[in-house]
Amino acid sequence: MSLQFLIELAGGVDNIVRILSPQGRVVVAVKDAQKVLPCPDSVQAESVLGEWQLSMPRVDISDEDLASLGRLIAKKQIASAQQHLQPTTCSYRPQWHISPPQGLLNDPNGFVYHNGEYYLFYQWYPYACEHKDKYWVLLKSRNLVNWNWQSIALTPSDWFDSHGVFSGHAVSHDGELLLFYTGNTRLGHDRQRQTMQCVARLSEDNTAEKLGPVIRTLPAGVTEHFRDPKILYRQNKWHMLLGAQTTDLQGRLAVYHSNDLMNWDFDSLYGDEIAPFGYMWECPDMFELNGDLFFVFGPQGIKSDNPKHTIEHQNRIYHVEQDSEGKIHFLEGWKLDAGFDFYAPQSMETEDGRRVMVGWMGLPDEVNQPSCDNGWIHQLTALRELKWENGKIVQTPICELAELRESVSSLELGISPVDAQTKSFELNVELPWGSALTLMSDDNYGVKLQLDTDKGVLRFDRSQTQIREGDVIRELPLDTDKAVHLQILADNSSLEVFINHGEHVMTGRVFTPESATQIILEGANVSAEFAPLKSVVESTFAPAV
Ligand code: FRU
């Protein structure tokens, strides 16, 4: 029985929305069950979680047969997602951060410098503010500030990724850009997860040619929560890092090695030294800063001592060491961002050798915020540079962001409100302990940054905003009694607060009305440096046709 036979039974290619290949079988899901022809006994037809699926034994059907059907499905998926490229008008939309035109954005992907340009992809579900079958969107930049829309680069069109082209990195190698990602599929009535690590090659026209899975099976001792490949070259071989969950529900780093980027051998799981540390580790990254090695990941299931901090999806950076046998040892770790919304970050090395990171300004599980009323949710963070200085991770906004300043002036802050006349600005200020700065405020709403002397914390309080889900208080202990320097980047519905020149960062989305542009300071008056920021958002969306 050929694939062609199954396609005809399914009512033709135009009626097929998904292909799957569970153990020894091929499954196609159809749009309209009425168009399915009467099936012989060898073909099983049934409704699986609301989707009509035809399944038959996979005999004499090659990967190439399935790939050609995948290419046809991809064409249809791109055409229908293209109907969702027009950005909706919304006062919460950032004017210099990357947000989706419609639907849901999550992790940054494939962040890399390649052939003279910066590439940045993001996870996208075009059709609703929901986490469903993910696509990759591609943007490019020459200066890390102006990002230009390129394409819908990958769609969930194939048997190995039909429930989502999940996160991954890109590798610039021999003049080509290879995209490594996790193909996510859900099989049968119990939505059994099947994950494979896959590769695609980006063509000149910014479409991606899928080369298929390079790791099809799991090593012993892990669950199907095995994803988010990061590729790096160290010790004369390619390494693939994956976020993993062990069968006893512990998060770990999994490492594979390869000489040619296509054939991969499992090395080991790492992270025992810091266990127990959550039930899953997502989105690994690894890089050197000043000759030392660091590992970044998203541990899930981390409880906090502070009762106001209830979200268990976190971000961490660990100082690690790789010994001469390639084994990775965990030394000391820190939070990368002590705010609300910083997850799944990726980093790359700039042309001039800086380590620059971008994260998802959002969190898993959270799908209802005021922007959903205008059909979109979540955004990427500002780009930050990471350094390792005197035993500390230091993070600062990339210097290129200064290009966004329209003008710089000094602003006298005090208890009488100052109208910033914009919600997209940079504010540099030195705050004494005991003072509280309220931003993006009007008579009813506002976001407060408070230096609480009694508790010795900087408190980021978004309780007086229009937020619908998520924590509203973050408290960062600060080990100093000196005035605290804040560099605040604001962009309509977000604040990124860089504390004491990058010793800490707190990122949060903050929803207040469009007209809430006042700034108030409780405590002694201080003078701040203020710069309204330009809008560069237009080029991040597809040109209207
Ligand atoms: C992190 C994550 C990744 C996964 C992707 C799916 O936010 O859960 O682990 O690949 O999102 O969109």
Automatic annotation (TrEMBL):
How far does the signal peptide extend, from start to end residue?
none
Q: Which UniProt keywords apply?
A: Carbohydrate metabolism, Cytoplasm, Glycosidase, Hydrolase
- List the CDD domains: GH32_ScrB-like
| Cellular localisation | Cytoplasm
Residue ranges constituting the Glycosyl hydrolase family 32 C-terminal domain according to the UniProt record: 421-522
- Where does this protein chiefly localize? cytoplasm
Protein biosynthesis listed as a keyword: no
- Check the record and name the Gene3D superfamilies matching this protein: Exo-inulinase, domain 1, Glycosyl hydrolase domain, family 43
InterPro entries (UniProt xref): ConA-like_dom_sf, GH32_Enzymes, Glyco_hydro_32, Glyco_hydro_32_AS, Glyco_hydro_32_C, Glyco_hydro_32_N, Glyco_hydro_beta-prop_sf, Suc6P_hydrolase
Spell out the reaction equation it catalyses: Hydrolysis of terminal non-reducing beta-D-fructofuranoside residues in beta-D-fructofuranosides
Instruction: Classify the source by domain of life.
Output: Bacteria
Pathway, per Swiss-Prot/TrEMBL? Glycan biosynthesis; sucrose metabolism
The GO terms describing molecular function are: hydrolase activity
- Report the EC number(s), separated by commas if there are several: 3.2.1.26
Ranges in a coiled coil:
none
Residues in Glycosyl hydrolase family 32 N-terminal domain copies: 97-397
Which purpose does this protein serve, as stated in its record?
Answer: Enables the bacterium to metabolize sucrose as a sole carbon source.
Similarity remark: Belongs to the glycosyl hydrolase 32 family.
Q: What name is this protein filed under?
A: Sucrose-6-phosphate hydrolase
Tell me what organism the protein belongs to. Vibrio plantisponsor
